[in-house]
Amino acid sequence: MNNVTFFLLEHISNLLVMMFLIRLMLQLGQADFHNPISQFVHKFTAPVVNPLRKIIPDMGRFSTASFVVAVAIILVKFLIISTVFIQLPGEALALGVTVGLMMKAAPAMGGLVMIFTNMMLILFLGLMIASFMSGGRYHPGVAFLYQVTRPILRPIQKIIPPIAGTIDLSPLIVLFALWFIQDALYSLGVKLITG
């Protein structure tokens, strides 16, 4: 396989993971599913999530099925990369698929956190720009961004309410926190690779 295949595998799998994480965030934020963008996410993920919910039910508003699918996509991506692009050590192959999956669990969670932070950075930057451009008018895109980021913003807004009722610093605080988390994960990854 060449670099183009690797590039496509990396980005298509990341986009799929983001779709299921957005579905999770919309459910956490009790989003309005009449919003056309929310409807698209719901319809795109429903063929996988709805049957799985019968086996893995939700925990309150947390869509466990969406979370499991997101982790599964990352696991499959890592397995493909490790077996096709990078040769696994012989002992890892001998332990079989089950142990192999367990070995990949930790990087998968790290990958999930990185994709989640990237997705939230995009959403928060979009929210800040869209809020400025919309001038307070209703737009389904802005409403979608508010709803999908609400589960993260709401706890911060309870601690630091908007100044004078209009100036909300919570997106800025979240952006700085996400940049800090990404930097820490990147440093940890470099440390693990270089020993």
TrEMBL record:
Membrane-traversing stretches: 6-26, 62-88, 108-130, 159-181
GO cellular component: membrane
Family, as annotated: Belongs to the YggT family.
InterPro entries referenced in this protein's UniProt entry, alphabetically: CCB3/YggT (IPR003425)
Name of this chain's protein: Putative integral membrane protein
Superkingdom, taxonomy of origin: Bacteria
Signal sequence segment: none
Swiss-Prot/TrEMBL keywords: Membrane, Transmembrane, Transmembrane helix
Keyword Transferase assigned: no
Organism from which the protein derives: Kangiella sediminilitoris
